[in-house]
Amino acid sequence: MATISFARGAPSLDIVDVEGLKEASKLAFENDPAGTTAYGTSVGYVPLREWIADQHGVAVEQVLVTNGSMQADAFLFELLVQPGDAVIVENPTYDRTLLNLRERGADVRFVDLEDDGISIDALKTVLAEAVHPKLAHIIPNFQNPAGYTLSAEKRTALLELAVEHDFTIFEDDPYVSIRFEGEPIPTMLSQDDAGRVVYASSFSKTVCPGIRVGYLVGPQAVIKQIQGIATNTYISPNMVAQSIVNQFARSGRMDGAIETVKTNLKARKDAVVTALQREIPEAKFANPSGGYFMWVELPEGVDAAELEKAAAQREVQFVKGSDFGGAANTLRLAYSGVTPEQIDEGITKLADALKSLGVAAS
Questions:
Q1: Beta bridge partners of 110
Q2: Shared domain check, 117 and 84
Q3: Number of helices and strands in the chain (H, E)
Q4: Which of residues 236, 251, 266 is at a domain's end?
Q5: Domain closes at, from 251, 279, 305
Q6: What is the torsion angle, in degrees rounded to the nearest 10, for the CA atoms of residue 72, residue 76, residue 82 and residue 87?
Q7: Whole-structure pTM value
Q8: pLDDT in tens, 301-341
Q9: DSSP character for 116?
Q10: Which helix (H) or strand (E) holds 99?
Q11: How far apart are the C-alpha atoms of 145 and 40, rounded to whole Å?
């Protein structure tokens, strides 16, 4: 019996444009063999850097392309966060970012997340306590792990607070393209006229996870300093991967790949909603309008760590909410790597695991 995993935020092979990537790889080596195979520069593969700058309407000097967005995070934290520095994070937030900040010795300040993004009132309370954060880490679209999206009003409020309290907003936005419904909300980067935002995104969620290409966009002076860190870290990032992404993007295959991912993930998200409502009606969740994840709150008294064990006995995996700073009765379901049929079976088994803990469906 194969394990049904709701644990990993990665698309399954059936929705990756393998043929398009093969074609882009061929074009990369045919059209620019020298640039594709050379060390290159620490700012990344120049044509891709130019394409990203054009997408965001910024000067090319404001862009740095990295080996995945986690590398971009690490560079930014190395530049801005010293031991003891206060950093605002959403509660819950992405566990790897949390780990990275804690390893740097940051004074991590959790601010509760609401259905429409970080609580501005709670943030103001923290800022009023004489806390002077260096950085606020925000995942604005289809947040990992919660799946929530930051409203336009809160984006404006955050920008105002960043200016007032002299901190940088790290707009960590790898899921921005995976919107199922509704209109895109302008990025904080696009509204920043005070040099307060550093933006990161990734091609892992749209092209494929194995491509490991991410990027930063920010004030030119900040990017220049991060370029120095990048040079000392690896001379240059992976030119082959970045050249392939460049060809993939410029050939028009990127748009089709994103549509395929969106169509399939919406069907998978809908399958989770249907199965949860049927099998675990007492579960509370917000229906995400995009992305890879859903945050589920179970009744008070349910221990997700115990449920994790019971689910594992039934060949089902998920990540408990406490790993992200959440409450003991919460969990994250990633629906990106499982088919609707697997989702239906998996949620049914999860309900059975819940009943085995003495929690019956109401």
A1: 89
A2: yes
A3: 13, 14
A4: 251
A5: 251
A6: -90
A7: 0.95
A8: 999 999 999 999 999 999 999 999 999 999 999 999 999 99
A9: T
A10: helix 95-103
A11: 35
